[in-house]
Amino acid sequence: MRNTISIIVLFFLLIPTTAYSQNWNAVCVGINDYPGSGNDLDWCVNDATAMKYYLETYKQYNSNRVIRIINGDASENAIQTVMQNMSTSAGNTNLFHFAGHGDSQELGGSNGLVPANSLSARITQGELQTNFGSTYNQITAFLDACGTGIFPRDMTKGVISSACRADEYAGESSSIEHGYYTYYLLAGLTQTSITTAEQLHNYAAPLTTQANPRQHPQLGDSFTGYLSVYNSAYTLSGTISRHETWSAGSILPGNVYVPTGVTLTICSNLNLTLNGYSIISTGGTITIQSGATLNGLLATLKSGSDIKGIYPTSYTVQQLIDICSSGWSINLASGTYTENITNDNYNVAIVGTGTNSTTINGTVTFNSADYSSLKNAAVNGKISVNNSSSVVIDNVKANNSNCYIDAYGSSVTIDDYISEVTQTRGLYAHNGSSVMHSQSQDKNY
Questions:
Q1: Per-residue pLDDT tens for 151-173?
Q2: Under CATH, what is the fold of the domain 2-221?
Q3: Global pTM value
Q4: Cα(97)–Cα(187) distance, integer angstroms
Q5: Cα–Cα distance between 354 and 368 in angstroms, integer?
């Protein structure tokens, strides 16, 4: 249920600039009229109607992609059907807003949202996830009903926001003619700086509690990065000014820069063509979800798990080495790279996708490159290690007799398939070099 409380709250509307795109879908449900006497609510239809209007007006949702169902039309079957009709193909973000009765075991009832057809019917946490698509993660729900804290607590996909905890009631007010939580969601939608589901929750939650101290909105966030609720054109060239989630296939017309405080999320199943351009962090966060396809990719540069840049095949491996700072890794895409490579950086790793998928046709040289490494690649050429300590050669395969290791004044650790190299042309170590092989003890030359 939702309690009715009178309170006066004011907010000012800020109209953002217009931006257009597609692939944002929404279902807005509002139920005032329930079976029996004494079960009706007052402002849930207002909530759903306003949510549809605000999404279309302030976040540029296409009106044909925002479905409002209210009162008797919002049966359990109708809600589930309209949700299941939202596309789960790549390039779609799906939003669900519910205003009506809710229940939970913590409140002495049974878990779920209460549809219009029956006070005993429930749309449970699992059913809501199934309605979205059991494996689809590009989803967000804003649930303005009692006990809805069970949803962000238990659901494991997308961004789920509730009006209250599992053991709390959600209130509505005649003074504002809305539920408290929806009222502040609407206020948040008018803010140009709020573009993600996470930001929208974080805006509305404290204001809701301030207006009604018995409500504490909850957030469950299983989405990697930030989930955009702003139907805007992507920033495919230049500097990104706000959090963006790329989910529709795109081609870069220029370099993209992600500054401090901004997150770019590249969604799973996205087909992005780099077109010779790069995506570079200048302090911001770049997230690539599993399953994304980056056409024309040479490598990603990382510092630990943080992506520093995504670079196209118009670069060479050597150019990326020259870009790197200490502690970075060059994570090469599958392919064959015909060039001679010299790594003269401290603690920089060159990492392929595997000995059967990443091949370097040329010489790989380490010059004063302490703690650097070459991993997961085949090499058709000499590996030369000069005046470098603690260099690691790991899971590197020789494809022909031209491949061997030549160490001069260096310490080298050799692991895994590099034994194929030593069997082909041999291992040459000079000037006090120390070589450790995973299948033998230290050898000094």
A1: 999 999 999 999 999 999 999 99
A2: Rossmann fold (3.40.50)
A3: 0.68
A4: 15
A5: 26
